[in-house]
UniProtKB/TrEMBL annotation:
The keyword Aminoacyl-tRNA synthetase does not apply. Keywords: Cell membrane, Disulfide bond, Heme biosynthesis, Iron, Membrane, Metal-binding, Oxidoreductase, Transmembrane, Transmembrane helix. It comes from the Bacteria. This is COX15/CtaA family protein. Pathway: Porphyrin-containing compound metabolism. Its main location: membrane.
Amino acid sequence: MSSAPTASTIAPRPPVPHLGVASRFLRIVAWASFVLNTFIIGTGGAVRLTGSGLGCPNWPLCAPGSLVPTEELTYHSLIEFGNRTISGPLLISAILVFVLTWRLRASRRDLFAIASVVLGLVVLQALIGGVIVWLHLNANLVGIHYVISLALVCITAAYLTRMYEMGGPRERVVPKGFAILTHVTTLAMAVTVIFGVLTTGSGPHSGDSTIQRDGIDAVLMSHIHAWPGYIAFALTLALLVWAAARRLRPLRWIIALFAALIVQIAIGIYQARAGLPPFAVGVHMVLAALTAAAMTVVVLRLKRPAAAPAAAIEVE
């Protein structure tokens, strides 16, 4: 048996470290980056679920010779153009976070690394979006586009989590078995997301009425998608019971994760039985990203800054 620092009760969050003269602004733009990356999943879902994927048939222009929708185009163009418009503020927020974090790179290499990844993925997303239009909504690229957006929500959530903690070395504050179970749960959720993307790719919401999907049966895929979801739910329940019994640091976020999974499963069952209504599918897509973000925070709270005050507890 070895001991590692944790608290007999949930440890209070350490004070916000000194982030320089732009600390308040940095926190604002970091939250803006997270919100915008979540919001664009909703607008992107609206594009696909309303059949507006080719509402702007060109990229980077919306129509030949015009950056914005023309009178000849339909309301689908407005939906697609609205989604593209979100990309501007999203890119600006990623750049601002990167620039402000650059000043802290010597003391907060973790934040600088995360900010660099976010900026790179945002730029990559814009390029992939253009290629998707050029290739007339290729199903595989659309799936990749969503997965990257979901990853961006998780990574920006990780930035927020680390931003409110001190930098430097970190130490595990939960039993080793609990940490292993958490990572296994993360894997189950990742598999659920991947099969969810494949299920959507074989379903009726192709993004444009002229596009026909060929592939695996959507009903079969929905069942395959459900099983890892149920496994993730059961594993999360085990984490919740364990964390509550030992008053472990990730408890509050495990409660949030568990609640999100309950809602996700309920929506998933409803949309499957109701014939995949677009609004329910869209909510399911956004909640998947938020659920994955909650899982990310749970993983990060397995450790805390080594400099933080702590009590000792037996670790298995």
